[in-house]
Amino acid sequence: MIRNKNFGYMLILVAMILCTGITHAQAPVQEKPNILLIIADDLGYTDLGVYGSSFYETPNLDRLARDGVIFTDGYANCPVCSPSRASIQTGKYPVKTGVTDWIKGRKAYKGTTPNDRWIVPDTDYELKLEETTIAEALKPNGYSTAFIGKWHLGETEEFWPEFQGYNINIAGWSKGSPNKSGDANGYFSPYGNPRLKDGPVGEHLPDRLTSETISILQNRDNSKPFFVCLSYYSVHGPLMAKEKDIDDYRDKREIMGITQDEEFLKDQEWMKAASGNPKEYKERIKQANPTYAAMVRSLDENVGRIISYLKENGEYNHTLIVFISDNGGLSTKEGSPTSNLPLSKGKGWTYEGGIRVPFFIKQPDQTRGIVSHVPITGADIFPTLLQYAGVKNTYSDIDGMDLSLILNGQNPEDPRPLFFHYPHYGNQGGNPASAVRYGDLKLIHDLELDAYELYDLENDISEKNNLIEELPEKAEMMKLMLSNWLDKNYDRELKPNPEWTEIDKTLETTN
Questions:
Q1: Of 70, 158, 142, 120, nearest in space to 361 by CA
Q2: Residue 454 counted as domain residue
Q3: Distance in angstroms (rounded) separating the CA atoms of residues 294 and 300
Q4: What is the largest distance, in Å, between two alpha-carbon atoms of the chain?
Q5: What's the DSSP call for residue 317?
């Protein structure tokens, strides 16, 4: 039965019905499953065909999703990258790791501006070594561990993957995007990355990370299961891709008759209310950027290469594969390369476009695809991987939930609250904010204005109809839920900015 809550359900189900199974070589006999965790960067909720995109083409990711469990209500734990990545690695909410903003954060680079009503809290600049990562939990239990790609959880090397439980670290260091300074050329070699040797001039970074991953799998000790965290830099800026792919999408854009006039919203109320110059913002409402589309294609092709390798070597049916993005797509500033519609806003915001992401899991020997509407978060990955690896979960302070029962079609009887706290001014126009989702209701607390919004996501996925006055009892219950959670877990406060210059602001936003 199709629900009306989310865009793209029909596409997902029709695609799964059409999908056919393929028989491959038998996996080697192994007591524990292999685990492949794939993390995309800044990939928006509707950036995959299986989640509703008609402009981007993602046949490999769509096929992988259909083989597994597609979560329509999967969330990153923060609307920016580093906090979400810390949550994935530890199973904890960002407030517990201390990493609540991208490292080092807007405050470190821009300071507190006169447009900021509040001096926001500091964020930690590293994932502390006393935290237990997935790799540190799996490694003593027989797993060989490797990290490939973006880390962005420590400014100095003592906090990089090789000191956080990973036997191998390739390309993981301080930066959160491909290096494009000096002689370094971003997504093309030379990379200027101390954990990745340069390749031939012009070599493409996603291709290289995939080749490195396949090489690790080829040369590993086959008597041990592997845990590989493949963390692509794609599709984070700078916007760079192969020219042929860009040309293909320029042609597609022309064939579809897409014009600049229908791509963006400008002069919106939220732009006037946001910290900074309103002219810096534009909200993309149509997916049409050829370079971004080419970057999505490259991500898809390279995931396809990994899956092909696993199938050809009999490993696919013996491997647990998790795919997630670290936050929503970039849609309101910095070029606004993608649209998350029907979700509101994007990266840097606690609206759905900033935190709801493509999220799916393929179990070992899974024989049919499933669509799940249970809300989950990136923090759930840690306990879920432990369960499949047969590792006893002795970590009492984690916030994630083991998803194994949900993955096998058993839905929990009662909802659990999901919490989000981003007490920072984002680069994309969003105010410091907190949020809680409970069942189908979501409460957002704008910390800049001390204003609340309440949405029924079952009937209003675009967060257009604020029910804060219509459902006062529900609103008060969720306010208390959110404040109690913060009182228990976070002690850093916003402080009044004595240099703040009041400008005309409004609570009305165009969502």
A1: 70
A2: no
A3: 10
A4: 67
A5: G
User: Domain for residue 452, yes or no?
Assistant: no
Go through 264-299 and write b for each residue having 16 or more CB atoms within 10 A of its CB, e for each that does not: beeebebbebbbbebeebbbbebbbbbbbbbbbbbb
Task: For the chain, 511 residues long, give each residue's pLDDT as a single digit of tens.
Answer: 233 444 444 444 444 434 433 334 444 455 899 999 999 999 999 999 999 999 999 999 999 999 999 999 999 999 999 999 999 999 999 999 999 999 999 999 999 999 999 999 999 999 999 999 999 999 999 999 999 999 999 999 999 999 999 999 999 999 999 999 999 999 999 999 999 999 999 999 999 999 999 999 999 999 999 999 999 999 999 999 999 999 999 999 999 999 988 999 988 888 887 877 778 899 999 999 999 999 999 999 999 999 999 999 999 999 999 999 999 999 999 999 999 999 999 999 999 999 999 999 999 999 889 999 999 999 999 999 999 999 999 998 999 999 999 999 899 989 999 999 999 999 999 999 999 999 999 999 999 999 999 999 999 999 999 999 999 999 999 999 999 999 999 999 999 999 998 765 444 443 3
How many structural domains compose the chain? 1
Among 5, 70, 24, CA closest to 322: 70
CATH number at 384 reads 3.40.720.10
Backbone torsions φ then ψ of 448, nearest 5 degrees = -65, -45
Q: Cα separation of 154 and 82, whole Å?
A: 9
64 lies in some domain: yes
- Write the secondary structure of 415-439 as one string of H (helix), E (strand) and C (coil): CCCEEEEECCCCCCCCCCEEEEEEC
Tell me how far the alpha carbon of residue 5 is from its chain's centroid. Answer: 21
- Tell me whether residue 446 is in a domain: no
- Predicted TM-score (pTM) of the model is 0.93
Residue type, 452: Y
Are 439 and 73 contacting, i.e. CB atoms less than 8 angstroms apart? no
Using CA atoms, how far residue 80 sits from 42, 44, 349, in Å, is 8, 12, 8
What is the span of the domain harbouring residue 331? 9-416
User: Which helix (H) or strand (E) covers residue 466, if one does?
Assistant: none
